[in-house]
Amino acid sequence: MAMNDQWGLRRINSGDNVQVIDNWATVTGDVTEIRQAVDGTTLVLKVKDVEDFEDYPNLFNWAKGQLITVEIPKAAKAPEVGAEINWRLRIVSPGNSVPHPSTLASLM
User: Fold this and answer.
1) Does domain 21-107 fall into CATH 2.40.50.320?
2) Please, are residues 40 and 74 in contact by the beta-carbon 8 Å criterion?
3) Dist. CA 46–CA 49, nearest whole Å
4) Residues whose CB falls within 8 Å of the CB of residue 43, separated by 6 or more in sequence, listed in order
5) How would residue 17 be classed by pLDDT, with cut points 50, 70 and 90?
6) Taking Cα atoms as reference points, which of 73, 50, 65, 63 lies closest to residue 95?
7) Alpha carbons 19 and 37: distance in angstroms, whole number
8) Where does the pLDDT of residue 4 fall: very low under 50, low under 70, confident under 90, or very high at 90 and above?
9) H or E element: which one contains 33?
10) For 5, which DSSP code?
11) Quick count: other Cβ atoms within 10 Å of Cβ 44?
12) Does the structure show a pLDDT above 90 at 103?
């Protein structure tokens, strides 16, 4: 059962069902920061453009001109700060996006 917490945010209990939307968009932007972590790398990207990909919902329409984060695995070669990327991305949780497997394959 979902409940609102003391701040009015909706919290979901572990037994609740949550709808997942398979979403993809082609995002173009500049890498502004790289953050290393134990299990991977987080890229901070300043979004220049967002395009729909096939018939998938585009959850990045809000992102043009904004900063987003993109998580890549430790084994992937991260682009350098200042590099422009044009990747197919999806949002996997609030504030967290990942590249399409074909993009990851090109980074390995």
Assistant:
1) yes
2) yes
3) 9
4) 31, 33, 34, 35, 69, 70, 71, 72, 78, 79, 85
5) low
6) 63
7) 29
8) very low
9) strand 25-36
10) -
11) 16
12) no
**Is there a contact between 78 and 47 (Cβ–Cβ < 8 Å)?**
no
* Whole-angstrom distance, CA of residue 20 vs CA of residue 82: 33
Please report, for residues 6, 76, 83, 92, 95, the alpha-carbon distance to residue 31 in angstroms, rounded to integers and kept in the order given.
Answer: 37, 15, 6, 20, 16
3-state class (DSSP) for residue 107: helix
How do beta strands 84-93 and 96-99 pair?
antiparallel
What residue type is 72 in one-letter code?
I
> Would you state the pLDDT for residue 37?
85
The string of pLDDT tens digits covering residues 43-79 is: 999 999 999 999 999 999 999 999 999 999 988 999 9
Pair 91, 100: CB distance under 8 Å: no
Those residues whose C-beta lies under 8 Å from the C-beta of residue 3, and which sit 6 or more positions away, are: 10, 11, 13
Q: CA nearest 102: which of 69, 74, 80, 76?
A: 76
